[in-house]
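Internal QA ticket QA-208
Title: Verify multi-chain structure generation after dependency bump
Assignee: T.L.

Test input:
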Amino acid sequence: MLKDDILKALLEAGDYCSGQALCERFHVTRTAVWKAVARLRDEGYTIEARQNRGYRLQNTEYLLSQASLDEAFAAQNFLKRWVFLQQTDSTNLEVKRAAAAGDWGPTLFVAEEQTAGRGRRGRNWSSPPGSGIWMSLLLRPKLRPERASVLTLVTALAVTDGIREATGLEAAIKWPNDVVVKGKKVAGILTEMSTDMDRIEFVVIGIGINVNTESFPEEIQSVATSLAIEQGKRAARTPIIAAIWKHFAAYERLFEATGSFAALKERYETLLANRNREVRVLDPDGEYTGTAIGITEEGELLVLRDDQSLTAVRSGEVSVRGIYGYV
Amino acid sequence: MLKDDILKALLEAGDYCSGQALCERFHVTRTAVWKAVARLRDEGYTIEARQNRGYRLQNTEYLLSQASLDEAFAAQNFLKRWVFLQQTDSTNLEVKRAAAAGDWGPTLFVAEEQTAGRGRRGRNWSSPPGSGIWMSLLLRPKLRPERASVLTLVTALAVTDGIREATGLEAAIKWPNDVVVKGKKVAGILTEMSTDMDRIEFVVIGIGINVNTESFPEEIQSVATSLAIEQGKRAARTPIIAAIWKHFAAYERLFEATGSFAALKERYETLLANRNREVRVLDPDGEYTGTAIGITEEGELLVLRDDQSLTAVRSGEVSVRGIYGYV
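Actual output:
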């Protein structure tokens, strides 16, 4: 579409582009260029127009685009393909469709907006344009299916370290699927898998991060936050995305090479927000409290119960909540 | 399509239908009826045409059709929907597409022919028209994902009991995915699952049965057979299908109600072809031999190794072969 071509031209230029030059480059009329610019503004891009100089994209560091991803991933060799989408139903569904069409991956889908984003247990995941990172990876790991849930832990490590590197915020992991800053959730992970029991067909690793959300509804303000709220200024999204997949590639390589989470356990426990915290375990067979003391090499949370017995809590069977808040 | 309408009319009549009556019923010309009959003959149906009497379908008991499934499933209350397809790429793929489109199931797809049928580990599964049962079930069980592989055992039980009931042959289970008659494979099961680690999104249970296959390539004659070869005559497929899902519904209900395979363990071990046989376990960590003595409640094969140690063998990690043949 013309608007995408013009956006790419403005991004590449990084400065003013004359309307005449755009007309000539794309073989269209001035009116067509003007209309495309208007549509880009509707999508949230700030485009300055100046007599005799032309159009200029502002605040480009806050934009996501195919061009910004191309630049971020040019030097890495983990992702085979990356796709930016202005809008989609859900990036996890994008991955499933790509897998069904034979995509071998690793392939990353990043969307500016999801219209049907989902979190764990089928919950809705709000994914408005401009304020977040909504992305999913297609991976075909050589893992036994029963080991796949460890990929959620690997991802939590990568998201936490990526956010730390790109923003300096002290992000931490709330076992097993969330990343928190100062005890409030900034990111969630939804790992899905298609398997024939013997082997994994493919895995979908979905990541949602509240980046520039300015405020949250009052009823969730105590448990949810954004990177912008925590650092007091807007954050550029592309460097966060790049940092996350850099860490993911390294952690995943280590996990595959050793066939075990043991090599990542120490780093994980260092970043574990629940560690040495009192937790309430909402086991369907009976709720209990205790202290989270670490994780096992299978990725279970080790909880020292108040009766001094030690329980390895498996993701999926239970919910874990902090006694004094979310973590 | 007209040919499907005419097939249904001939099936329902069970006797001669005059060409004139078919023309009037479907508001088409004699030529159109004649062409539809020719197409049905191309698909393998034997349709007799007699002057002054009309068309009659022969050997109807050997045919699969939507009408034959409708009749077979009219009185049951397990399947919510069943779909007959003359040809498809793969019934497992049909299920995945139906699930993606929101089908809640239990829904059964039965195909006369698969053009891209698959077995375990991505192997091709030959599925020519006329000779087999190629079918897949969409199920959304309330099971923890790590328990889903037990559904393969439940299915093996149902296929074995269904074949026994409908044909009288002494079918048996080759743990975990195959059904054998006199030590040779007649059926295979391919269970697939889509999960978000916490819960199962849906399960696909694919079943392939060699029913009226007349002969097998020489290189697999020692390990593969068909129901027709074993009983010395062609078998009607619809009663086998009906019997399998009758048994499946009963076993699955028991499994869900008790949350455990314990209630099915005894029947499974009775039907287990490997039981008390010497087996070779092709474990990636080292091959070993022993005697299969039964299964655990988690569905693992219990093998008494030659060094007298007892190992619970998990499906997916290993292959099990008989020492003196396939079982």
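Spot checks passed. The two ends of chain B are 46 Å apart (CA to CA).
Status: verified.
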